[in-house]
Write a structure and sequence with these properties.
Subcellular location: Membrane
CATH superfamily: Cytochrome P450
Helix content: 55-70%
Distance between the termini: 36 Å
Order of helices and strands: HHEHHHHHHHHEEEEHHHEEEEH
Radius of gyration: 22 Å
Number of domains: 1
GO biological process, one term: sterol metabolic process
CATH architecture: Orthogonal Bundle
Number of helices: 14
Catalytic activity: 5-dehydroepisterol + NADPH + O2 + H(+) = ergosta-5,7,22,24(28)-tetraen-3beta-ol + NADP(+) + 2 H2O
Pfam family, one: p450
Strand content: 5-15%
Number of strands: 9
Shape: globular
InterPro entries: Cyt_P450, Cyt_P450_CS, Cyt_P450_E_grp-I, Cyt_P450_sf
Length: 396
Amino acid sequence: MMGQEHKNLRRRIAPNFTPKALSTYTELQQIIILKHLKSWVEKAQARTQARESIPIRVLARDMNLETSQTVFVGPYLGLKARERFEHDYFLFNVGLMKLPFDFPGTAFRNARLAVDRLAGTLANCTAMSKAKMEKGEEEPSCLIDFWMQDIIREIEESKLNGVTTAPFSTNAEIGGYLFDFLFAAQDASTSSLLWAVALLDSHPEVLAKVREEVAGIWSPESDKLITAEQLREMKYTQAVAREVIRYRPPATLVPHIAAENFPLTENYTIPKGTIVFPSAFESSFQGFTEPDRFDPDRFSEERQEDQIFKRNFLAFGAGPHQCVGQRYALNHLVLFIAMFTSLIDFKRDRMDGCDEIVYVPTICPKDDCRVFLSKRCTRCVFEWWMDDWIWVFIDI
């Protein structure tokens, strides 16, 4: 999508990522992270005697899927619907890695049909949220509520001008856009979480600094979640998150269309309209100081390499198509790093080739990030918050 139509759509999406909206999501994100980290530790403890590590790729994927569902459509996706949703999303992921032969019984056909069902489910969630927000009796509790609150306001303004609807406001359209959000939040975040664990394990000095910073701002024994203000104070942990994304950008190739003739070299100009696949991965290792080294300090206020080498930091894209949800994605990674390192002691089960890159479809460690886990604190937010509050939000 290009031009004014694209600008209009992004303008309507923007209210989903205001500071107020992000603050609402932050609480939901933490609740689900805590629920799953507790489960991870329990799984790890069951293997302690056998001295077996656990691979966390699928575990992280499941955590992110539940996070996306809850943050994006919250109470409008019931338990049975979530189970069907997860099944269809699995079919979509499998089909994404197969050749595009659209014949009955093929993985690609199964994926295409699954996407239609997923978008339809999200359209139904949109309708329920729209009905709720029209009453104006409750504050938004998830992304679709913030979106519908703004859509309803725009529809009312349109009616004053004799127009019965507003652009990009049908349930089907919004369901499709929500699916795009889900894909971006699910697979890319899973990749970043895995590489964060792998890189923190191989860089103990960075891990120590993260734990020191987080401990000075938030305590897992405080019976409180991390606030939006505390999250903003975690400057070094944010730098670690950004360096994880630079060092291992989840989507290594992102297709674009040349909007104009573009001189790539002295001898070759990309014609307007050409589909181009710039490598976000290769770009991340150009320009930066010692780009092959994992160095979170490059994103410090003193060095600001994300600004100096802005044209090379393409994990979230650039220009008018830059990822609209990048702050949400970074918040999720920072929250995970802060909680994971504070609540859990971990060690990689290292073997030859474990850090080689595989595509599933975003990149992850070849061994699915196998780790040994144990609880780090004797009494922490695990018990209090999980037991008293988690089911208020999750068991809908």
